[in-house]
Design a protein that fits this description.
By secondary structure, this protein is α+β, with helices and mostly antiparallel strands. About 30% of the residues lie in helices and about 25% in strands.
């Protein structure tokens, strides 16, 4: 849901399932002595009124510490964007955004802007969207569980980290309640016992259950898959995919009376890291035509075709670019021959008129960097697990330098996944390590083109925005055009995790440059208006571009 209300402060609010994102704007002439914004929340469901809280303080009146947060009523947010990360799905809220003027310790309220909004729920008649928390590296996790692995801590940590994602997948599988149903999956990693048990239970209820999984010879993933499949006693449900370069899909088709009715897709492997560590999304689509195309693709995968045979099939059955680009839902299957899919993705990204948001688990490949390498009025945000994957030392160094150069453009926002790895800096707790082998923080693969506009484009699925993901591997993506609810949920989750890792990256850079013994105060508020405000009105700056785009 999105609401925009004009007042002394213009407020644009976008709600997802667990996040309400706010953007503010004010006439520059009205910002004399402006010290930030305070946000009051009235929870109409639980009948509570509270002030949103942050960590930054005015050093002259209160020493900063990350252990204790503070009310925005006394320590306002010195930014033109903020978010409520404590919102709950399906709740109704009324927010009041107050401009705060004056001096630290003697602030006065300006006229508030009142904005009512309701958060989304994950489930819908068309698109049900489930994100995990992706916050194993967070102060919230460390305060609850310390810097310990969630599997050591136990069920409460696992449930907290999985958030909506695991319940969403289990509920989807449990829809196969008797012999009239079927589940037909293609999964890269088959290593999470609780989900494998759910699939086994569906078979025991009489449902037809068959899972194609990656069994490429001489791969560590294959060995892990085989071991867990045998331990779970579900060998009869599983079909080896041996001939693919990589069988990298993560989807499950649900059938009713032999008719495909829904498909679960997204970035989520059946592994502990996928649910409890790295950021992932599961996306269930209730559409018979889409489900049928996925089922037909699955039927081809089941026969373990050669890569050439798979490319022939996709070329004949999955024309990309599609003849009708106005379809609301477009399925994309790989591998295809040539660069047609990759170039199409790039053209879609280049079509952004206001903003582009993308997640990259393995860095921005050389051929895609020109999309971001543009100094114009379009905001382009990239969330990366790492700058580069593979290559020799020279090529890796060049890729890192190129990405760092691009991120310096004023219209480009970039963040690389990281954690706070010491507890000796300014009150911040050491955070838990990742629990993955290759990807610890960001595993989603999605693109948002002009998400806050009237006709947003959301692309989501299993492919990593690279040539091999389009012309070598088994992959799937779904292109969703014009659905604002879908875009709102993905956008708010993107901004949540982007802000999370951008701060951690800045902490890590400081530690690498100075070590933990050098004093650093990242959470101090500025004590004078001229120390924080002008950059937000400086033409062409990232802050000014963000203020203009996000506030609508």
């Amino acid at each position: 849901m999105r609401k925009r209300i004009c007042g002394d402060v213009t407020v644009n609010a976008i709600s997802g399932t667990h996040v309400v994102f706010f953007a503010f704007d004010m006439a520059k002439t009205e910002t004399r002595d402006l010290m930030g914004f305070a946000i009051q929340r009235e929870d109409l469901t639980e009948r509570e009124i509270s002030w949103l809280r942050g960590c930054k303080t005015f050093p002259s009146i209160r020493k900063s510490t990350a252990y204790d947060d503070v009310s925005s009523h006394d320590f306002p947010f010195q930014a033109f964007q903020w978010a409520d990360y404590t919102a709950k799905p399906g709740y109704r809220y009324i927010y009041k955004i107050y401009p705060k003027f004056g001096k630290p310790g003697n602030l006065r309220d300006g006229n508030p802007t009142k904005i009512p909004i309701e958060t989304e729920i994950a489930e819908s008649h068309k698109h049900s969207i489930y994100f995990n928390r992706g916050a194993i590296a967070s102060q919230a996790y460390s305060k609850r569980f310390g810097p310990n692995s969630p599997e050591i801590v136990g069920p409460y940590a696992l449930e907290w980290l999985a958030r909506d994602l695991l319940p969403g997948m289990l509920n989807y599988i449990n829809r196969a309640k008797d012999a009239t149903y079927g589940l037909y999956g293609a999964i890269y990693e088959m290593r999470l016992p609780v989900v494998l048990t759910a699939l086994s239970d569906a078979r025991k209820r009489g449902a037809k259950v068959y899972i194609v999984y990656d069994a490429t010879p001489n791969r560590e993933t294959t060995e892990d898959n085989d071991q867990v499949i045998d331990t779970a006693h579900i060998r009869s449900l599983c079909i080896r995919r041996k001939k693919a370069k990589i069988m990298h899909n993560k989807f499950i088709v649900l059938t009713k009376n032999k008719k495909p009715v829904a498909v679960w897709t997204g970035s989520t492997n059946l592994s502990p890291n996928a649910f409890y560590g790295q950021l992932n999304v599961g996306h269930a689509i209730e559409d018979e035509f889409v489900a049928k195309t996925f089922f037909n693709y699955w039927t081809k995968l089941k026969s373990d075709p050669s890569p050439d045979s798979m490319k022939d099939w996709n070329g004949n059955n999955n024309q990309i670019p599609p003849a009708n680009i106005n379809n609301n839902l477009i399925e994309v299957f790989s591998p295809h021959r040539g660069k047609s899919i990759f170039d199409w993705y790039r053209r879609i990204a280049e079509s952004a008129q206001g903003a582009l948001f993308m997640t990259f688990p393995f860095g921005i490949v050389t051929e895609f960097r020109p999309v971001f390498d543009r100094n114009d009025q379009v905001l382009r945000y990239a969330l990366l697990e790492k700058y580069v994957n593979g290559g020799n030392a020279a090529s890796r160094k060049a890729a890192i330098q190129d990405s760092i150069r691009i991120r310096r453009l004023p219209n480009v926002g970039m963040a690389v996944g990281s954690r706070i790895y010491v507890d000796t800096i300014d009150g911040w707790l050491r955070e838990a390590k990742g629990i993955g082998k290759f990807v610890n923080w960001v595993h989603t693969k999605f693109m948002l083109v002009d998400p806050l506009g009237n006709n947003p484009i959301t692309i989501t699925g299993s492919a990593n925005w690279s040539m091999p993901s389009t012309n070598e591997n088994d992959e799937n993506m779904i292109v969703i055009c014009g659905d604002q609810r879908v875009a709102d949920i993905y956008f708010t989750e993107f901004m949540r995790i982007f802000s999370h890792h951008r701060f951690r990256e800045s902490v890590c850079r400081h530690l690498e440059m100075h070590g933990p013994g050098v004093e650093w105060k990242p959470q101090d508020l500025k004590e004078k208006t001229e120390e924080w405000l002008p950059i937000h009105y400086k033409s062409g700056s990232e802050h000014s571009l963000r203020r203009a785009y996000f506030s609508g």
